[in-house]
Design a protein that fits this description.
By secondary structure, the chain is mainly β. 4% of the residues lie in helices and 46% in strands. The strands form 2 sheets. The chain has a 6-stranded mixed barrel. A two-stranded antiparallel sheet has the order 2-3. It comes from Eleusine coracana subsp. coracana.
Length: 140
């Protein structure tokens, strides 16, 4: 483990509480919304660190749903479409509800069976300017 800020260490993985699912850097996750009425947020884990007490925090890059963007959901947006944003944040790992997969649109259309954990991304979203751009790096 590499040392980061005072008293913090980079960690390689985190097991989601109450499950045997392991999250690693690069994985996409579902993050619990503060309002239980809302769908979970989707994010990509960029970094994980633990403090001396074992509390794990994750640096995430957020995906936005079309309805969360300036133009809102349009007719051509897919039901499972997300936009990879330039919005990064630190969150407690305890807010991770599960893992998901964000596919490129091309790979998403090749899936035989789309599950609840499958999403796709075609665009990157610049949160500050609120503009969409074609996103070559937004899905697997």
């Amino acid at each position: 483990m590499a040392k980061t800020k005072q008293g913090k260490k980079d960690v390689d993985s985190y097991t989601i509480r109450g499950t045997n699912k392991v999250v690693r850097v690069g994985d996409c996750v579902l993050m619990r919304a503060s309002d239980s009425e809302n769908q979970p947020y989707v994010a990509r884990v960029e970094k994980m660190e633990a403090d001396g007490r074992g509390s794990v925090r994750v640096r995430v890059r957020w995906y936005y749903r079309p309805e969360e963007s300036k133009g809102g959901r349009r007719q051509f947006h897919g039901a499972k479409e997300l936009f990879l944003s330039d919005h990064f944040d630190m969150q407690s790992a305890h807010t991770i509800e599960g893992k998901c997969v964000v596919h490129s649109f091309k790979n998403y259309t090749k899936l035989d069976n789309v599950g609840p954990e499958d999403f796709f991304c075609r665009f990157e979203y610049k949160a500050a300017s609120r503009h969409l751009h074609p996103g070559p790096s937004c899905g697997v």
